[in-house]
Design brief:
alpha/beta; 3-stranded parallel sheet; two-stranded parallel sheet; 6 helices; 11% strand; globular
Length: 145
Amino acid sequence: MASLFPHPCPQLPEYQSLLIKGPYHASAPIHMLLSHATQYPDTKAILLTPRRAAFKDALVELNDAWLDRHSGDGSVGAASRRTEIFYPLTLAHLRLLLSMLHEYDTAVHHEKTTLDAAPGLLVLHEVSSYFTSQSSDTTYGPTPC
């Protein structure tokens, strides 16, 4: 089962959909992707997060000892190859990306949006930031008077 922490740790319960609200450590989304990809080796895990620099800075500041120690391990490397992280900046970008993701069907192939199979896990990280007025302003421009 997927987890927000490195093993050994408590596992999340079985779920179809899951909302995690409140403070959690910066590497929790990475651990969730890796634990899912490790448990389900035939699936892909995708993370969508709006602020690439903030996400990276939080990971660097945390300096997760487990990731430092194990990121070069073969099993972690194999799991990480089955994960993707996308950084749609605005709600319009998120909607566009979600509408473009598709499984390969021999007709349309795009390097970033064509998946060999549907993902087993899709993580929407900090999704509330897409619904702030600042995000809307940068997407659609200022509201006319």
